[in-house]
Structures are given as structure tokens and as C-alpha cells.
TrEMBL record, chain A:
Species of origin: Paracoccus aestuariivivens
Keywords from the UniProt entry: Membrane, Transmembrane, Transmembrane helix
Protein name (Swiss-Prot/TrEMBL): TctA subunit of the tripartite Tricarboxylate transport(TTT) family protein
Domain DUF112: 21-440
Transmembrane segments: 12-34, 46-70, 76-96, 108-130, 136-159, 171-191, 260-284, 321-344, 356-378, 390-406, 465-488
Pfam families attached to this UniProt entry: TctA
Keyword Amino-acid biosynthesis included in the entry's annotation: no
Length: 502, 324
């Protein structure tokens, strides 16, 4: 343990060399903007920067790419709060309360909480990464298709918490999302599904295309500029542009649980940061004394998912550093980066390249501190976006969003698809269907499908294995409790109430 | 020939430079000195993957050895299981300033139908290396040799995608050895390694580069190699052919151009690729680095190889019921 801290201190010292500092700052700022740009997430960000930074020396290149990764986790929350569009998939849950806060005029406070949560989540994730990487890695590989199925069942059982006022509408949205998740080449047998006769849909529907349509464009279609401007203008106060420490401290519990759960789910193969944010949000809402506040601008609703997605990004690096295998789409590109600079990722990286690994870890600590400073300084400027009249703001946002979507695959088809999802989102909004369950269906559905089908291919169709894994059984039971929690709680209350009335 | 005069926006600068150097040279004479425009290497996959690393290494070796008078630009066009990238390359018919790498999806995606192209829509230029597959098990496994596969029951092998080299090889294995190994497709090579380490899969196929680190760390045990010759770094591991099984399938690192490019361009690139394949820089930066087998194929031999590869995939996809 002590030895680890010694190595880490050496790493931080090594990472303080001017070249690496510049690389970290460069990567973090690029990541911040890429994360904030709807359409481009951390995977695209790392991929865009990879050919550029290969010219740096090896360690600086990876430090810069790491900066893009965690920088984008900070940036994703910014767009979610200010525009109500998740900048990347891990920021979807932040939209719910973050955007509600911004609409209420508290953009500064929401951004402050998001920054603090990102930092704390990041720090917890980093400390766990640096101290327990090898131990956690061997636990993570225990999660095979059976266990991943159970994790996804558990995550989906939480949708009932997130569905808004009408659980049936939430469920229908989820089903639509699950169906959209089946578009593309079948992951197990390879035939195209619902491809509309076009190769554009072979890789499935990109999260950001759906998110931009459902959240961003739908909201804009719904705004009647002429009438909105007079009445909906929120009063502008300088105070609302600044982060507010007291509100941050009040969320300590959500910050803690968000960081830990985010990290654990982030380590699991293929589960990713988005599932982590969803689980922490649901847990925070379940634990709250007054869950009604969630969804209407609760500070805790921003704190929990933002802590989770930052912690998850470090969790997903564990399989990469400890086993030499990618834990997420972004770490897969990072791993390619290691190969390009001439490093051989593998289970021996800690032994064969200790200087490299510890310097990179050191650079992560420095990068996180730098990001807090940068984002706090930017907060007043960013928060003032919330006070710009829609007539000026929306054309700019539409241009940025269209550019972001187009740049994923250089495809006009994708832009048209986002516009179509905007129409669907508008209809859903008018009918009172929440968009979040639909998005979650699209992200989690494919992981669930792969889990179930990989298991069944492996056992020749015998489903009994699902109940032979202790991890899976515990998660299935937890899912049942989550689903029936409202009924159970009622029962407990009745039990308690009875002696009192007697 | 007409296409050689077409100046794309990207090469406009290069064109101007050429004009500046030789303003009085007639246009026809300039057209004869191919290449006069920057070359775009289209990668039908994202940054950081195998085909991307190949492209960037080729571009670097060409630059270091000054084999081209113009610049080579690597352009990633991912999406649609390769369809987006190869459609893009195919749309530059007759334009010898575009080329692209050949991956598995180059053959398999068009076989699924509905594409405007297939492998015959491209002009083969040459191949630079090939990569065999090693069949491995978790080092804690009871399977010590290939023969143990026959007695073991209900084995699972990983594959990266449903229609992939790993699936093709596993079907060959079942046919040759009479085994009933089930193929479980995953989305990436790393996921498959994780599943083998965690005991969720019994076997996997991997390129030497993927597998050597795991083998050296004592996490995986190699069983056999899918090529006629053994791997330099693993001299004790037998090959399938020497054990008497007809399993010989390697991944070709090949480069193609759009259809209808002039014969001079093909001859020019055969020369460039031959110099790359035989250079020390290539050996160091690619072959030794990723433990691949040295190889050079010219246009005609690559054409033959592509035909054979495509028919292997077609046969497998028919067996899987993906094609009629």
C-alpha cells in the first residue's frame, strides 16, 4: 500500500514535466469541448486526437488522450445542463435535473455541482484505480454473459423509478428503445435487421443521433419563439452564474454513492458509464426522503450521475492497464494508441513499463485538478447561455448539433435521422412520454441481448445456467425487490400503521 | 486517363505547386508522370484498430523511404461494417489517387447483398504481410493439446463478430476434427480475451500480436497455428497442417484501388509496395513489431488470393444459413 503511494508520488513528479503538462492541458481542453459538443463523445474524441498526438513522445501522447477521455466527462454534463441535450451518452441522466435547474435560472449552481461531482467522482475512481487495479481486474473477469445479463436486468428494473409520473408510459418508451437497439447487423448470426435496405444502419443507431433528436431538436420544435420570449425569460442574477459550495456540500451522500457505484459498474466489461449513471440516479432517488423533487431540479439528481460517469471512466481503464484488454469503446481506441506509440499492452504492463503506467496515473491526478480550475473559471460564461433568448440561441445550437452529428460518419443520412427523431420526440413530449427510458433502452438493450444470446449459444439453449451463478442470482433478486419496492413499502407502512391505530 | 486531370480540392495545393515548378510543361506531359496528386489511403474502420495501424505504418514507411513524390493521407471512413468506407473508395472509379486496405468486411459485407460493390469492383495492387491465427486456451484449462479437443464435450470458442475469421476457422476445425465446438460471437478481441480469462469461453483464435503477451504472462496456452510455418516467437507450438489438419487461413494485409485505374498506376504501386515489403523499416515497424509473416504479392497473385478468400467466406456463410 505504502509502496503504491510512493510509486504514485514519483509518477506525479514525472508527470509534472513541461511536455506532459502541456499534453495534459491540451487533451483536457479538447476533451471538454468534444464532450460538450452533442454528437461527439469521448470515443470519437480520442479517435480524432490519436493521429495528432502520435507525434508527441509516447507518455505525453497517452497523457493527452487520457485528458480527452476524462475531460469529455466534464464537458458532457455542461451541454446536458445548459441545453438539455446530453453531450455524450453518460450525461443522459444529468439532463433530467440539470436542465430543470437551468430552466429555473440556477444554471450556475447546477454547473457547480456537476464540476464538484466530476472532480470527486474522478478522484475516488483514480484512488481506486491506483490502489486496487490488479485485484479489481481479476474480480471483473468473473462477469461473463450470464452475470452481464443479470446486471442489465437490474439496471432495467430501475426504469420504473425513472419513468416519471406514469410508469406505463415509461415502460412503452423503454420498449421502443429496446426495439431501436435491435436495428443493425444481428450481433450473433450476422444478418441485417430493420436496415431499411441501406448499409447506413448496419452498425445500429448511434446514441447521439437519437439523443440529439429526442432532447434537443424536439425541445426546439416545441418552442414557439414569438410568444415564448416575453414570458419565459428568467430573471438574470449574477449569483446564479456562480457555483454555490453550500449546495454542493448538501449532496455529499449522493457524491459518495455515485462515485463508488459508478466505479464498480464502469469496471464491468461493456456495461459502461451510462448504465452506471442510471443505477446511481435510481439509487439516489430511492434513498431520498422526498423523491418527488427528482426530475424537477434536484441538486442530488445532478450530483449522483456526474460523480458516477467520471468514476466509471477510470473503472473502465482497469481491464486495460491490468489485463491489456479494453473495458469500453474509448479504452479500445486508447489501447490502439498504446500500440501506435510502440507499447505492448498486456497483463505485464505494470511490471514491464512501471514508469509509463505511474506517470500516466500521475498525469490523471494533475489533469483532474486542471479541469476543475478551467471549468470553474468558465462557469459564469457558460451559465449565461441559459439567459440567451431562444431566438438567438437555437439557430447556433442547431448548427452545432448538425455539425456534431454529421462529423460522426460524414453522413447526411445521420442528420436526417436525427431530425426524424426530433419529430418523434416532439410527439412524445406532447403526449407526456418521458424520453429517458427510450434512450436507456437503446443503450442497455443491446448489452442485454448479447448477454442472453451469448449464454444460450454457449449452453446450446439451456437457460438453467442463469440461476447457477451466485452473482446473477443476487442481482435477479435485487431486481425483483426494485420492481416491487412500492408494494413492499406500502406493506411495511401498513404494518407500522396498524399497531398505532389499534 | 481523363481522370488524371481532375484536380480534387484536397490536391489543389499540390497541383498549384506542380504548376509553380513547371509552368511551361504541357498538361499531357505532366499527366504521364503519375502520381501528380496526393494519395488518399481509405481505412474502412475507426482510428486505432488493426487496419488503421497498418495504413499509418505503410504511410510512414513510404514517407521515410521517400518512395512517393506526393503525400499519402490516411482517411478513416468507419461505419456500416465497412460498407461506408468501401462504398466511398468504390465511388472514385478510375481515380488512381485513392487506395484502401482489405479487411474481413471487404469480403463479407457485400456477400450479405444490397451493396453496389464486391471484391471484384476493386483493382488489386499487392499484399505486404500476412498474419496467422493461434488457437489458445486458458492456462488453467484441462486441454493440453489439440487431441484433447476431441474428447472434451461442450466447448465454446470466441469470435469477433458473427461473420469473421475466427468463426470461419472454428467451422474448419469442426469439419476437420469432427468436434462440436460452438462459436460465441463478441464485439471485440479484448472482450474475447476477457471471456477466456474469466472462464466464460474455452477457446479463442488470436493474432500473434494479441496472444504473445498473454502467453508470456502465463495466462494462456497456445495449441496450434493456422499457417504452414511455425511462429518465430513460439517455436514449440505446432501448426495445423503439420498435425495433418487442412486448416490454413491467414489474414492478408493487402491494398486495392478503385476499378478502372490505368495499368501504369498498378505497375507503379506494385513497385512501391515491393520496396515497402522488402525494406528494413517495414520489418522493424510492422513485421517484427506485430509478429506477422513477411510476404509480398503482386497484383495478379493478390487477385487470385482474393478470389479464393471470398469463396471461403461464401462457403462458411452458406453453412451458417446467411446465404442461400
Amino acid at each position: 500500500m505504502l509502496e503504491t503511494w510512493g510509486l504514485l508520488l514519483n509518477g506525479i513528479a514525472a508527470a509534472s514535466s513541461p511536455t506532459i503538462l502541456i499534453a495534459v492541458a491540451f487533451g483536457a481542453v479538447v476533451g471538454l469541448f468534444i464532450g460538450a459538443l452533442p454528437g461527439l463523445g469521448p470515443t470519437a474524441g480520442v479517435a480524432i486526437l490519436l493521429p495528432l498526438v502520435i507525434g508527441f513522445d509516447g507518455t505525453a501522447a497517452v497523457a493527452a488522450l487520457g485528458g480527452v477521455y476524462y475531460g469529455s466527462q466534464y464537458g458532457g454534463g455542461v451541454t446536458a445542463i445548459l441545453l438539455g441535450i446530453p453531450g455524450d451518452s453518460a450525461a443522459t441522466m444529468t439532463v433530467i435535473d440539470g436542465y430543470a435547474l437551468a430552466k429555473r435560472g440556477e444554471a450556475g449552481a447546477a454547473l457547480g455541482i456537476s464540476i464538484a461531482a466530476s472532480f470527486i467522482g474522478g478522484l475516488v475512481g483514480l484512488i481506486l484505480l491506483t490502489t486496487f487495479a490488479t485485484t479489481i481486474a481479476s474480480a471483473a473477469i468473473a462477469f461473463g454473459p450470464v452475470e452481464m445479463t443479470a446486471v442489465m436486468v437490474f439496471a432495467l428494473s430501475l426504469v420504473s423509478v425513472l419513468g416519471g409520473k406514469d410508469p406505463i408510459k415509461g415502460l412503452l418508451g423503454l420498449c421502443l428503445g429496446l426495439w431501436l437497439g435491435t436495428v443493425g447487423l444481428d450481433p450473433i448470426v450476422g444478418i441485417p435487421r430493420f436496415d431499411l435496405g441501406s448499409a447506413h444502419l448496419f452498425d445500429g443507431i448511434e446514441f447521439s443521433i437519437l439523443a440529439v433528436g429526442l432532447f434537443g431538436l424536439a425541445e426546439m420544435y416545441n418552442t414557439h419563439l414569438g410568444e415564448a420570449e416575453g414570458e419565459n425569460q428568467i430573471r438574470f442574477r449574477m449569483r446564479d452564474l456562480l457555483p454555490q459550495p453550500r449546495k454542493i456540500i448538501r449532496c455529499w451522500r449522493e457524491l459518495g454513492t455515485g462515485s463508488v457505484i459508478g466505479f464498480i459498474v464502469g469496471v464491468l466489461p461493456g456495461a459502461g458509464a451510462t448504465a452506471a449513471t442510471m443505477i446511481t440516479y435510481a439509487v439516489a432517488k430511492r434513498m431520498a426522503k422526498d423523491p418527488e423533487r427528482f426530475g424537477n431540479g434536484a441538486y442530488e439528481g445532478v450530483a449522483a450521475p456526474e460523480a458516477a460517469n467520471n468514476a466509471a471512466s477510470y473503472g473502465s481503464m482497469i481491464p486495460m492497464f491490468a489485463l491489456g484488454i479494453p473495458g469500453s469503446g474509448t479504452t479500445a481506441v486508447l489501447l490502439g494508441g498504446l500500440l501506435m506509440i510502440g507499447l505492448q499492452p498486456g497483463p505485464m504492463l505494470f511490471q514491464t513499463q512501471p514508469d509509463f503506467v505511474w506517470t500516466i496515473f500521475g498525469s490523471f491526478y494533475i489533469g483532474n485538478l486542471a479541469l476543475v480550475a478551467i471549468t470553474i473559471l468558465l462557469t459564469p460564461l457558460l451559465a449565461s447561455c441559459a439567459f440567451v433568448k431562444p431566438g438567438y440561441l437555437f439557430p447556433a445550437v442547431i448548427a452545432i448539433v448538425a455539425f456534431g452529428i454529421y462529423s460522426i460518419n460524414y453522413s447526411m443520412f445521420d442528420v436526417m435521422l436525427a431530425m426524424a427523431f426530433g419529430v418523434i420526440g416532439y410527439v412524445m413530449m406532447k403526449l407526456g412520454y418521458p424520453p429517458v427510458p427510450l434512450i436507456l433502452g437503446l443503450i442497455l438493450g443491446p448489452i442485454l441481448e448479447r448477454g442472453i444470446r451469448r449464454t444460450l449459444v454457449g449452453t446450446n439453449g439451456d437457460p438453467s445456467v442463469f440461476f447457477q451463478s451466485p452473482i446473477a442470482v443476487v442481482l435477479f433478486l435485487a431486481s425483483a425487490v426494485m420492481l416491487f419496492w412500492p408494494l413492499i413499502r406500502k406493506q411495511i407502512r401498513n404494518q407500522r400503521a396498524r399497531p398505532a391505530t389499534n | 486517363m481523363v481522370n488524371e486531370f481532375k484536380i480534387s480540392r484536397r490536391s489543389f495545393g499540390a497541383g498549384l505547386a506542380a504548376l509553380g515548378i513547371a509552368p511551361l510543361v504541357p498538361r499531357l506531359a505532366r499527366a504521364a508522370t503519375y502520381p501528380d496528386k496526393n494519395i488518399t489511403y481509405v481505412v474502412a474502420a475507426g482510428v486505432g484498430g488493426g487496419s488503421d495501424i497498418l495504413a499509418r505504418t505503410v504511410a510512414r514507411v513510404i514517407e521515410d523511404k521517400k518512395l512517393l513524390p506526393v503525400t499519402m493521407i490516411v482517411e478513416n471512413r468507419p461505419g456500416g461494417s465497412g460498407a461506408i468506407g468501401y462504398n466511398y473508395l468504390n465511388s472514385h472509379e478510375g481515380d488512381a489517387s485513392y487506395l484502401g486496405g482489405v479487411g474481413v468486411s471487404f469480403f463479407t459485407t457485400p456477400l450479405l447483398g444490397k451493396m453496389r460493390y464486391n471484391y471484384k469492383s476493386f483493382t488489386p495492387l499487392g499484399a505486404l504481410a500476412r498474419s496467422p491465427y493461434i488457437l489458445v486456451v486458458n492456462s488453467g484449462s484441462d486441454i493440453k493439446s489439440l487431441d484433447d479437443l476431441k474428447s472434451a464435450s461442450s466447448l465454446r470458442v470466441g469470435s469477433v463478430g458473427a461473420v469473421a475469421d475466427e468463426a470461419l476457422l472454428s467451422h474448419l476445425l469442426n469439419k476437420e476434427m469432427g468436434t462440436q465446438i460452438r462459436v460465441v460471437p463478441y464485439d471485440g478481441g479484448g472482450e474475447v480475451i476477457g471471456a477466456v480469462l474469466g472462464g466464460h469461453l474455452d477457446l479463442m483464435w488470436g493474432n500473434p500480436n494479441e496472444m504473445l503477451e498473454q502467453v508470456r504472462a502465463g495466462k494462456m496456452r497456445p495449441l496450434a497455428v493456422s499457417a504452414p510455418e511455425r511462429i518465430k516467437e513460439l517455436p514449440e507450438v505446432p501448426t495445423f497442417p503439420e498435425l495433418g489438419y487442412d486448416i490454413n487461413h491467414t489474414q492478408l494485409r493487402a491494398i486495392v484501388m478503385p476499378a478502372g485505374v490505368p495499368a501504369e498506376a498498378v505497375a507503379y504501386w506494385e513497385g512501391v509496395l515491393k520496396s515497402v515489403a522488402e525494406s528494413d523499416e517495414w520489418r522493424e515497424a510492422y513485421l517484427d513489431r506485430f509478429n506477422e509473416i513477411p510476404l509480398y504479392l503482386d497484383s495478379a497473385s493478390l487477385a487470385k488470393e482474393m478470389e479464393a478468400t471470398s469463396s471461403r467466406y461464401e462457403a462458411m456463410m452458406k453453412e451458417l444459413g446467411l446465404l442461400k
